């Protein structure tokens, strides 16, 4: 691992069976939800180093939640576990029958954090919310959130409701990782400038491996507050489907009469998504010359701004990035068509020709024989 890598220690804790390893496997190891059922219990502490945005490395400590291990964390392993922690993620099973014991262990974690890493950020995930009746979810989560924030004082605690079966898991982890990204304010400023110059409605930046949202800009309020996480979930599942067919996901375009959405590789560590609804994109054939002229200027501007944003992203990455791949598809953004395409499809083998059943071949030969006899 490069000596210039920026390591961030992340503790993932909670009672055994709360779902810690399942969510880690979905986010960082490309598992799908149904496959997590075969994961066994974590023994003691599992360490993993996840490279994120090039030179940012998440040093993830997945701590087994059996009672024996939990007691050891607070006694003999206390300093080793809780020293130099950037983020504590504590996972609660919403249907746990030992809520009082869960809260006791959580308070013990907070005491150890205050002693060894007082500046650490604390996140609580109220997990398996899909098991709660839909009309009760808001009420139950609000009650748990109030209890956890009260117990966490003087530390600030951010709570999320999560489930491996929907987009809430991506919402929580995107927010957590966002806290670890260096110079994130400068990144957001560059992203806003980029969006304003190309007159995009929204621009999103995704981490390439996990498809977590790193940053975004929107020029107006949108009705669906969870659309980013839904996109992360959908594209991640689509990438996994492509990999099963020995194909790699490269880019996607969705266009109709109302908007155009583009997802493409931006740097070696990121994808970018741009959503545009400018009605001037759609022009009648008599105005194609106007489109071409404006398009050239727009592409030039995009190249400049992409390079500007790329310079900042390159500071976060220790790997080299080729701008050619980053900017390859910008010039096609204004094509007036209605389609949904994905470049991974181009790498798939062509479908085999349809097979004609033997009975059909015999019937055809019989008809030809009769026709020849009549002609003679």
TrEMBL record:
Predominant location category: cytoplasm
Biased composition (Pro residues): 348-357
InterPro entries (UniProt xref): Gtr1_RagA, P-loop_NTPase, RagA/B
GO biological process per UniProt: cellular response to amino acid stimulus; cellular response to starvation; negative regulation of autophagy; positive regulation of TORC1 signaling
Gene3D superfamilies per record: 3.30.450.190, P-loop containing nucleotide triphosphate hydrolases
Catalytic activity: GTP + H2O = GDP + phosphate + H(+)
Keywords, in A-Z order: Cytoplasm, GTP-binding, Hydrolase, Isopeptide bond, Lysosome, Membrane, Nucleotide-binding, Ubl conjugation
Region (Disordered): 347-376
GO MF, one example: GTPase activity
Pfam family for this entry, one: Gtr1_RagA
Record's subcellular location: Cytoplasm; Lysosome; Endomembrane system
CDD domains on file: RagA_like
Annotated family: Belongs to the GTR/RAG GTP-binding protein family.
Described purpose of this protein according to its UniProt entry: Guanine nucleotide-binding protein that plays a crucial role in the cellular response to amino acid availability through regulation of the mTORC1 signaling cascade.
Protein name: Ras-related GTP-binding protein
Organism of derivation: Kryptolebias marmoratus
């Amino acid at each position: 691992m490069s000596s210039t890598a920026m390591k961030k220690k992340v503790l993932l804790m909670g009672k055994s069976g709360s779902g810690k390893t399942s969510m880690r496997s979905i986010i960082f190891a490309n598992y799908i939800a149904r496959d997590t059922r075969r994961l066994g219990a974590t023994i003691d502490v599992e360490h993993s180093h996840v490279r994120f945005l090039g030179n940012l490395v998440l040093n993830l400590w997945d701590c087994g939640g059996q009672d024996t291990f939990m007691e050891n964390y607070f006694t003999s392993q206390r300093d080793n576990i809780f020293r130099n922690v950037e983020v504590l993620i504590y996972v609660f099973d919403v249907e746990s029958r030992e809520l009082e014991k869960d809260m006791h262990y959580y308070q013990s974690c907070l005491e150890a954090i205050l002693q060894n890493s007082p500046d650490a950020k604390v996140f609580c995930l109220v997990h398996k919310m899909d098991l709660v009746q839909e009309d009760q979810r808001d009420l139950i989560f609000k009650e748990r959130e109030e209890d956890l924030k009260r117990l966490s004082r003087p530390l600030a605690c951010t709570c999320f409701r999560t489930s491996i079966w929907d987009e809430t898991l991506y919402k929580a982890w995107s927010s957590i990782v966002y806290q670890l990204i260096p110079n994130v304010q400068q990144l957001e400023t560059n992203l806003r400038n980029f969006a304003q110059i190309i007159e995009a409605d929204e621009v999103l930046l995704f981490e390439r491996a996990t498809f977590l949202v790193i940053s975004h800009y929107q020029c107006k309020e949108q009705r669906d507050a969870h659309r980013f996480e839904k996109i992360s979930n959908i594209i991640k599942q689509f990438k996994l489907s492509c990999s099963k067919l020995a194909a790699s996901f490269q880019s996607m375009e969705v266009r109709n009469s109302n908007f155009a959405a583009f997802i493409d590789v931006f740097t070696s560590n990121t994808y970018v998504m741009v959503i545009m609804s400018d009605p001037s994109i759609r022009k009648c054939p008599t105005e194609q010359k106007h489109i071409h002229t404006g398009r050239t200027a727009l592409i030039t501007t995009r190249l400049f701004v992409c390079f500007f944003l790329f310079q900042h992203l390159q500071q976060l990455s220790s790997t080299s990035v080729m701008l050619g791949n980053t900017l390859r598809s910008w010039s096609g953004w204004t094509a007036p068509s209605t389609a949904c395409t994905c470049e991974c499809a181009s790498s798939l083998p062509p479908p085999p020709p349809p097979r004609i059943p033997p009975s059909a071949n015999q019937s055809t030969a019989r008809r030809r024989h009769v026709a020849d006899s009549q002609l003679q």
